[in-house]
Design brief:
homodimer, 5 strands
Chain lengths: ~290, ~290
């Protein structure tokens, strides 16, 4: 049974999108909307229905952490090729909940200070604190994606990183963080259309970088690097989900559903009062 | 003329709420809705109408900062007595814009590390970077509010801080940050009702702290401390606005209006392309 009030799922979104043994990225149809029965309009209604549920879960998670009875948090990791829709997910899914409960980090090209440390140094500093929903817009995986494709580190160092990431994520998980790793998967043809739109519209020019076209030429190398990431780092404590993302409505709905499932697993409860409620009522009345 | 699409303002919200010479906090009616003609329903419609405008301004501000042509940012400082509605402002006004453009900080009781530095050390680290809307939930003003009322520092140190804050804010302002300082003003009777509600509802118990009632006994001392803050730190480059906040709809609408006015002053523009658009179209087509 799904936790969500999103009505048009035919199956558990985690089952259908999770990277398990034998997963092949090349088998995923970026145009598809697996597990969902509806069209764009139905998807929009489902997304709207999920907002109130996500808000309540988030507030409960935050409240529960104040009681010191739980250290639970959530970490959503977003990875994708350019234009795949990370920004839209953050704006429309993450942005639908109270910003006081969100810890969002956009990881850019590392600074000299960051490069002087191990690649996980800057990541660990932004791990969500108890009660928070952390969101990584890009992440430690850049260091084995662009890091590998662009040969920014020696092969042995890239090899080392997969294990280091697994150890790091296991430690976060053991400390109470539920990790949801998402790759938004678009087709190169879809990317071409989205880049063309950015070039057509003056209000989108700022989002365009000529380097985006250079990266396109490396598409197969990036897909290989993602496949290796999935083979090496989709673990029980931190599974990967590959979400077909040519349809933006589907990708947003799927990410919302994955967050809802993670929060339902935590099942945060309003904490009991740590004070004598009736005594405080009397004090308040006298104040 | 007001920049906003909020229709029911009868006058410039900045004029009517700004702390100017001779301002007396004790003259402000927390129940009032100065400058606004409508009721709660009209206020709700105005708030809704302002959201799209705020979103576009925020995106323009963010985009403009990418071009390096501008260092503009906005800083919203929120101060208030407990239950006055800071959280609601963050959720409903700040939360209506893209979280990627928001840099939100909730300042808590200082940690030992923070206390080992000057009081502005932790504040400066969270000043908004170019293109961002910074939001301070509590701020440097705690150090002259609770700091003064609870005598957490010697009187001479409290005195020093007003000047240090003015210097700090002038520096931020000179660097391109438009500062909007807001005090949400509720009456002690309204606070009593809101605290009573927190005690009635088990899902609100986590928001209640018995210390809140102790602070109520110090209400007049806090109002004095706020008056001194207004007398000493409402400057041209960083004015204070006192917003009657017994009506939540009014307070939210007023903060949104103040943000819209600040953004209109900046008037951020979509940056021009830094590349040859036609050449990039050709490269994309060939990719």
């Amino acid at each position: 049974m799904t936790a969500t009030s999103q009505k048009d799922w035919t199956t558990d979104v985690r089952e259908i999108l999770r990277v398990g043994p034998g997963f092949r990225l090349s088998d995923v149809d970026a145009d598809s909307s697996p597990g969902h029965n509806g069209d764009k309009d139905a998807g929009g209604r489902d997304l709207e229905a999920g907002v109130a549920q996500l808000e309540e879960y988030q507030e409960r998670l935050f409240a529960a952490s104040r009681s010191e009875a739980t250290d639970a948090s959530v970490l959503l990791v977003l990875q994708a090729m350019d234009t795949a829709g990370k920004g839209g997910i953050i704006r429309h899914v993450v942005g639908s909940v109270d910003p006081q409960g969100i810890m969002l980090t956009a990881f850019k090209k590392p600074t000299p200070e960051e490069l002087a440390h191990d690649f996980l140094w800057r990541i660990e500093k932004r791990a969500p604190t108890p009660g928070m929903i952390g969101v990584f817009d890009r992440s430690q995986y850049e260091d084995v994606l662009i890091g590998r494709v662009r040969e920014l580190a020696p092969p042995a160092e890239i090899e080392r990183r997969y294990g280091a990431i697994n150890d790091f994520e296991k430690r976060l998980s053991d400390a109470g963080t539920r990790i949801v790793k998402v790759m938004l998967h678009i087709s190169p043809e879809e990317q071409k259309e989205r880049l063309a739109e950015r070039l057509e519209r003056p209000d989108k020019h700022w989002k365009f970088n000529p380097g985006d076209i250079d990266e396109r030429a490396l598409w197969p190398a990036y897909m290989d690097a993602y496949q290796t990431v999935f083979d090496r780092t989709s673990t029980d404590h931190a599974p990967w989900y590959v979400i077909p993302a040519n349809r933006k409505w589907y990708a947003r709905l799927a990410v919302q559903a994955l967050l809802l499932e993670a929060l339902e697993d935590i099942d945060p409860q309003w904490p009991a009062a740590t004070f004598d409620v009736e005594a405080e009522k009397a004090r308040l009345a006298a104040s």
